Structure formats: structure tokens, C-alpha cells
């Protein structure tokens, strides 16, 4: 190819699953389908500079994370390049400078793997498009999601917005285990849906999601759980289309607790929630009961709580968070986010 040098910059957001991905097969194939809200403010911004080099028998790149070299990220990216090489045979022809930063604080307990892998995948697709300008938009985004998946499963849901399904499901047209697809039938009740992330524990996770996914092999409840995820995806599809927020809350909270129940019932077993996670959940339930304001929670594979609610109750809910939940956050920290549109070229 004739591209000697090129430079691109993309931002990609984090996402929060409503129906959770937990358990995988070979090659990052999910054991069950999942669906997520793409976020807007929690993003990774990555710049990629590519310069053709003389030899092409190894990967060559420099990495700066927030302006400084970072060895553990380098290892991750090396592995990522190895995994995607057969789909991007041009990678070894270039020396790359990768310059990346997050809009959310580094040690916040918010995983940056989804946004980070998605941002890098978008840049790699920009290089592919520079080499081969005839590729379609559809191919560009699907393959970006496909590549992001090979970096970190849930990253494939960060390429697009506002709601993305990943994994084969009979009722979602075009759905695939290989990449995420946009869910476009959303009711206006979910427009600008809010996600306020309460930072309960900013530490490194005690158990990585890789280990967690693996523990679903031979898990006593695995088969039932995978079937339930299919059922919940069918239900939430209908709910998102009809705008039934009360039913939405039931599925989303049940999914969060089921995810953690899977961790508690694996062998070895583990608990990622903290006492303050439970304090917050109970406060949310009490507030919802007393006020009928449709505020709900979901959880990632960690102790932080994502508080989900419609935009029209934002003022009330933020007041409630200030008055009753902030005391359970580490250093009182939380992040306000909402549904977003996916990756953007800068
Ligand atoms: O993408 P991974 O391998 O880090 O797994 C993410 C798993 C959960 O965040 C717990 C659920 C999900 O669907 O995002």
C-alpha cells in the first residue's frame, strides 16, 4: 500500500450493561447476549500516528498514557495487536505512536478497557480506510467493533450508541457474537437517560473480569443464567421500545444482582460489593418507595454503583444523591454521565 504516514484521533466512551455479559467461549465469543447504554462523558481519547518502517516482522509502537509511558498498557496492546493481526495484516508495516488519555480519573474503579480498546480500534480502522478508501461505513464500524471485542469483550459495545446489543439473539435483527449492533427502537422515555456513577471503591479490582468469565465454566448455575440473559434481553427489548420505566427497573436491578450472585456462587467464590454498595442500594429502594421517583441502580464487576434515572427527575435525584448517598462514596466522589452516541473522530 502507498500510505507512508498518517495520524488520527478518536474518542470512545465507556458503556454500562443493562443485561450483563458474564462468561465467554474461545476467541471472546460471549456465552450470552448483552445490551448496554453507551455513556457520554466517561471517554478515552486516543491519538495514533503511523509511520511506514523498513522491516515488517514485528510490532513496533510507543505508548503514552496521560503523557507518560505505561508498561502494563504496553503489554495489553502488544497482546491486542497479536490477536488482531490476521484481520489487519498491515500493522507490522508501521511504527505507531499511541497517545491516550481518559476523561475520568485514572484510579476511579471505572474500567477503561472498554473505552480504551474501542478508541484504539477506531484509529486502526481509520488507518485501514486510508489504505483502502473504498470500504463502506457499515464495514468500518462493524469491523471496529469486531476488533474492539478482541481487546476486551464489552468494548465492542462502545463503538456506537445509544444502546448496543452484542451477541446472537433471535429477536434482534442482525445481532452477532462477533460485534455490537445499534438498537434503534428506543422510546423517548429513555432519551438522555442519566447515569450517575457513585465511586464507592476506587481501588484495583481484586478479581479481574477475565478470571470472572472463566469461573462461569463449570459454574453450577451457568446454563440457567445464560438462558435467563436471553429471556431478559427479549423483555428489555420490548421495554425499551414501549417506554415502560417501571419494568425497566425490575430487569436492570435483577441483572446487576444476578451478576454478583454468579460471583458469589462460583468456585472459588468472591464478593465485589462493599458495605457501602449495599447501603446505597437500600437507600435507593427506600427513596423510590417513598417518592415514586423511578430511580434505579446497576453494578459493574466492582463496588461502584451506577444510578440510572430519566432526565426529567434529574434535579430531585441529584439532590437525593447529595443528601443521602455521597457519604457512602470514597472521598465523596461521583461522576455525572448520561446516554451517548458512541465513538467520534476528532
Ligand atoms: O469486557 P470485560 O471482559 O471486561 O467484561 C465486562 C463484564 C461486565 O462489565 C461485568 C458486564 C458487561 O456486560 O459489561
Automatic annotation (TrEMBL):
GO biological process: one example: isoprenoid biosynthetic process
One Pfam family cited in the UniProt record for this chain: MVD-like_N
UniProt keyword Lipid biosynthesis, yes or no: yes
Domain Mvd1 C-terminal: 197-325
UniProt key word Flavoprotein: no
Record-annotated Diphosphomevalonate decarboxylase-like N-terminal domain positions: 12-171
GO molecular function, one term: ATP binding
Alphabetical UniProt keywords: ATP-binding, Lipid biosynthesis, Lipid metabolism, Lyase, Nucleotide-binding
Listed PANTHER family: DIPHOSPHOMEVALONATE DECARBOXYLASE
Name used for this protein in its record: Diphosphomevalonate decarboxylase
Protein's organism: Flavobacterium aquaticum
Amino acid at each position: 500500500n502507498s500510505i507512508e504516514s498518517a495520524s488520527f484521533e478518536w474518542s470512545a466512551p465507556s458503556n454500562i450493561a443493562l443485561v450483563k455479559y458474564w462468561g465467554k467461549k474461545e476467541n471472546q465469543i460471549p456465552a450470552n447476549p448483552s445490551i448496554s447504554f453507551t455513556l457520554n462523558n466517561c471517554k478515552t481519547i486516543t491519538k495514533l500516528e503511523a509511520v511506514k518502517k523498513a522491516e515488517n516482522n514485528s510490532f513496533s509502537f510507543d505508548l503514552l498514557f496521560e503523557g507518560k509511558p505505561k508498561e502494563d498498557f504496553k503489554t495489553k496492546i502488544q497482546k491486542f495487536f497479536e490477536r488482531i493481526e490476521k484481520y489487519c495484516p498491515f500493522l507490522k508495516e508501521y511504527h505507531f505512536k499511541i497517545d491516550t488519555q481518559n476523561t475520568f480519573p485514572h484510579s476511579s474503579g471505572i474500567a477503561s478497557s472498554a473505552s480504551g480498546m474501542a478508541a484504539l480500534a477506531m484509529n486502526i480502522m481509520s488507518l485501514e480506510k486510508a489504505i483502502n478508501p473504498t470500504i463502506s461505513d457499515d464495514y468500518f464500524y462493524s469491523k471496529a467493533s469486531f476488533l474492539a471485542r478482541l481487546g476486551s469483550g464489552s468494548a465492542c459495545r462502545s463503538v456506537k450508541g445509544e444502546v448496543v446489543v452484542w451477541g446472537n439473539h433471535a429477536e434482534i435483527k442482525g445481532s452477532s457474537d462477533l460485534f455490537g449492533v445499534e438498537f434503534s427502537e428506543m422510546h423517548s422515555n429513555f432519551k438522555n437517560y442519566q447515569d450517575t456513577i457513585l465511586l464507592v471503591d476506587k481501588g484495583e479490582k481484586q478479581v479481574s473480569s477475565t478470571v470472572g468469565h472463566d469461573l462461569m465454566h463449570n459454574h453450577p448455575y451457568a446454563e440457567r443464567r445464560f438462558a435467563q440473559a436471553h429471556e431478559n434481553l427479549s423483555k428489555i427489548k420490548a421495554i425499551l421500545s414501549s417506554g415502560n420505566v417501571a419494568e425497566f427497573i425490575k430487569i436492570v436491578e435483577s441483572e446487576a444482582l444476578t451478576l454478583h450472585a454468579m460471583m458469589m456462587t462460583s468456585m472459588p467464590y468472591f464478593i465485589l460489593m462493599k458495605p457501602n454498595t449495599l447501603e446505597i442500594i437500600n437507600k435507593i429502594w427506600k427513596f423510590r418507595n417513598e417518592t415514586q421517583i423511578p430511580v434505579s441502580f446497576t453494578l459493574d464487576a466492582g463496588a461502584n454503583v451506577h444510578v440510572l434515572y430519566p432526565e426529567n427527575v434529574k434535579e430531585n435525584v441529584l439532590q437525593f444523591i447529595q443528601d443521602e448517598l455521597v457519604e457512602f462514596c470514597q472521598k465523596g466522589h461521583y461522576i455525572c454521565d448520561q446516554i451517548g452516541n458512541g465513538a467520534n473522530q476528532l
